[in-house]
Amino acid sequence: MAAAGAGKTEHIVKTAFSLKSPVLITTFTDENVNEIIDRFHQLYGYVPTYVHILPWFTFVIRYLIKPFQNDFIRQNITGIILEPGQSAIYKRKDDIKHYLSDGNRLYSDKIGELACKFYDDFDGFTIENLGQIFDYILIDEMQDMGTYDIELIKLMLRNKINVICVCDPRQSTYKTANGRKNKGKDGINILESFSQIDVQIDDKTLNTNHRCCHEITKYSDSIYPDFPTTECDTNYVDNHLGIFFVRNSDINEYLHKYDADQLTYRITDPYNKNFRRMNIGVSKGKSFYRTLLYLPGTFVKWICKGGDLAPKSRADLYIALTRARLSAAIVYDYDNDFKHNIIKRYK
To answer: Do residues 56 and 27 touch, judged by C-beta distance below 8 A?
Structure first.
């Protein structure tokens, strides 16, 4: 289990490089796949031939579905339909239309389920065969897994596949699939899915934030008080460190003074078009020296007054704050007499 800024991607890359035997690295998003490839080139100048890097759905289809599809799906699978909800809910599980569209594309929320079906149909040979191809499987951002995709990881572990997973449940904003399987044991509770399996959970190796200043690290920990306290080894010397509130009327001045990267919650949110901007969701895994955050009112209300905050909102806030090394500023029109016990006012 890793904390923000702990170097999850670099840890995965260095581990894979050191194994010197066939290894698969897989993760949910294409962005993270590209980041892993880039990190190999940064560290070593190339990706070794024994390292295979694939997005999760591509991996499952290529190794756990297509080699075994002929007895059930005779059509050529032409692609994927990304399904944020639940597809084909009125189709029986023994009907190929439960998994496949009229255009022979797999519904993304059924990819893991179909792979689990083939595991049962072939008496476990699908996973056994996987162990003959790869000596190790490394899964990055495991907190993004949902429903039957979690089940596939459990099947790998039960079949003694060498699996190494890296995750930060606090950054659970995406999900491979939504459904009843493993519901409530995903996202922030992902580790509960593996409570009945003999696995080792390491919450020490990647528990040091090498990115954020101490003030940001400490406050971001308060978003998830039940998690282990994050260590911080940064030692920045700067006259503008920590978290700040900035009024709308001061945005232009602040951006000119500190050249902060703007992070918006929605792509439609207003921002200063003379300076850099990125969506908070896209910023996951990235680092900036300074950020200016345009957060929803519910986030700011929680920061100022506490109370309830939905799990995804909590994860988005954690991600937004922990992108910055030196300072994270939050746009908020505070009153002249406003005070916060941790967050400072820009003026």
So the answer is: yes
